[in-house]
């Protein structure tokens, strides 16, 4: 073979409805060496668990690296050196809806408004180099009705792209897979994209015409709508003309398309969505992901677990009754088992200078400490990963009492290169112990 014959490191294997990036090959010449020497990107995963935990079964003992995992956290024992358990972080708001909404924003929902969430701020900073600036996944559809003044449907997500725009999670595994990985570069796909773009242009013209006649309030709403339409246009452009890769994965996963529909098996469904998030990071399809393990006001039935008979929300209001506390703790531990699965999968993927987990930050937690009374002080929060070297797992980090959760968000935001001294004006500083 001639040494002069080379292929681009951006070459893809193509099939009908599929496109797969190649690993490093010698025939890529100097490009492969340059790519191998490149530093892997840093990812952010935010994972939300509803309804809190039973404090006595969650709280760890010991400080720093000399800490002991609690009964709920025992499934993470094989990853202990990769963890930071944070204590004394407080949320704001009242009830499930407001406290879910503030989990990544640090602010309280009021009059249908919130603030931009941590994941979306990071996506705005680093999402321009991937096909998708961020993804939002979930397992449970929005609930209807109201909780006080707030629609329960607001607790469907923790991700907000503006003060009035929620990012709704995709709960169908096949739909999420197709959106992330199905080939969009063929002639038919390009034609559909072009047709869609022409429709977008028409919508923009009509919207601008309407805007000229609208009130100031409606003009603001229309402006937000136009921004949303523009983001679709940008995504179409990225599909037709993919951006130059700054990072080529060292290895490539096997992309197996999920079955149609919503899985009935709770464990299988959540694991499938976790697998999709790992794949999206591994293939550098996106670098920011948010996962709702369930709705923020979840009444999921967990009778598939031994010893559990009631729904999650019901058992969270346990009134310190032994049976309810036992069921509540079993469900919380089950969620941590799923987190362990996710982290172990990330830890197993080699990226040359460390694992995918080493090059990521995973924020896991609930928006309330204890569902019994909707306690918002001393939240159950776990950090995993090293953020590409920006974070040092600290074991058990005890913050000052009543430290705002927004201080953690500000700390992470700065780790992702965003130069700011506050997080939605809700923070009071950063958490120095995170390195």
Fold blueprint:
Layout: E1 12-15, E2 18-21, H1 30-37, E3 43-48, H2 55-58, E4 61-63, E5 66-68, E6 83-90, H3 95-101, H4 118-126, E7 135-138, E8 146-147, E9 150-151, E10 160-162, E11 165-166, H5 173-181, H6 187-213, H7 216-240, H8 266-282, E12 288-292, H9 312-316, H10 322-347, E13 360-365, E14 381-384, E15 395-404, H11 405-415
Description:
By secondary structure, this protein is an alpha/beta fold. The protein has 2 domains: 44-179 and 255-434, Alkaline Phosphatase, subunit A; 186-241. Helices cover 34% and strands 15% of the residues. The chain is built from 11 helices and 15 strands. It has helices spanning 30-37, 55-58, 95-101, 118-126, 173-181, 187-213, 216-240, 266-282, 312-316, 322-347, 405-415, and strands at residues 12-15, 18-21, 43-48, 61-63, 66-68, 83-90, 135-138, 146-147, 150-151, 160-162, 165-166, 288-292, 360-365, 381-384, 395-404. It has a 7-stranded mixed beta sheet with strand order 7-12-3-13-14-6-15, with helices on both faces. Strands 1-2 form a two-stranded antiparallel sheet. Strands 4-5 form a two-stranded antiparallel sheet. A hairpin with a 2-residue loop joins strand 10 (160-162) and strand 11 (165-166). Helix 5 packs parallel to helix 8 (266-282) and helix 6 packs antiparallel against helix 7. It starts with 11 loop residues before the first strand and ends in a 20-residue tail after the last helix. Residues 15-27 have low confidence and may be disordered.
């Amino acid at each position: 073979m001639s040494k002069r014959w080379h292929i681009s490191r951006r070459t893809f294997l193509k099939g009908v409805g599929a496109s797969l990036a190649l690993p490093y090959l010698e025939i890529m010449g100097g490009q492969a060496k340059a790519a191998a020497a490149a530093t892997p990107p840093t990812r952010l995963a935010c994972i939300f668990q509803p309804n809190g935990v039973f404090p006595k079964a969650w709280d760890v003992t010991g400080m720093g690296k000399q800490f002991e995992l609690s009964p709920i956290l025992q499934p993470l024992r094989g990853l202990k050196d990769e963890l930071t358990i944070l204590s004394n972080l407080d949320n704001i708001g009242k009830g499930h809806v407001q406290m879910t909404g503030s989990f990544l924003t640090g602010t309280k929902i009021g009059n249908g408004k919130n603030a931009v969430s941590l994941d979306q701020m990071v996506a705005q900073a680093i999402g321009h180099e991937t096909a998708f600036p961020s993804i939002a996944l979930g397992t449970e559809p929005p609930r209807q009705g109201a909780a006080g003044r707030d629609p329960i449907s607001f607790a469907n997500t923790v991700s907000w792209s503006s003060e009035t725009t929620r990012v709704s999670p995709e709960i169908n595994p096949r739909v999420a897979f197709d959106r992330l990985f199905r080939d969009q570069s063929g002639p038919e796909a390009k034609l559909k994209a072009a047709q869609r773009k022409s429709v977008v242009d028409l919508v923009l013209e009509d919207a601008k015409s309407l805007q000229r006649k609208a009130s100031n309030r409606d003009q603001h709403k229309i402006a937000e709508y136009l921004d949303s339409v523009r983001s679709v246009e940008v995504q179409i452009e990225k599909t037709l003309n993919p951006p130059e890769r700054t990072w080529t994965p060292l290895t490539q996963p096997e992309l197996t398309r999920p079955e149609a529909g919503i899985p009935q098996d709770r464990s299988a469904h959540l694991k499938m969505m976790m697998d999709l998030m790992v794949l999206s990071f591994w293939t550098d399809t996106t670098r920011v992901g948010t996962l709702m393990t369930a709705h923020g006001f979840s009444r999921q039935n967990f009778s598939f677990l031994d010893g559990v008979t009631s729904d999650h929300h019901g058992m969270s209001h346990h009134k310190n009754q032994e049976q309810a506390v036992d069921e509540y703790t079993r469900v919380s531990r089950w969620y941590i088992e799923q987190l362990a699965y996710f982290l172990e999968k990330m830890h197993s993927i080699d990226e040359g200078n460390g694992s995918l987990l080493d090059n990521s930050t995973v924020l896991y937690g609930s928006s309330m400490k204890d569902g019994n009374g909707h306690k918002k002080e001393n939240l159950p929060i776990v950090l995993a990963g090293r953020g590409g070297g920006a974070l040092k797992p600290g074991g058990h980090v005890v913050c000052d009492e009543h430290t705002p959760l927004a201080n953690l968000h500000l700390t992470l935001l700065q780790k992702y290169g965003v130069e700011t001294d506050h997080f939605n004006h809700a923070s009071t500083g950063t958490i120095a112990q995170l390195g």
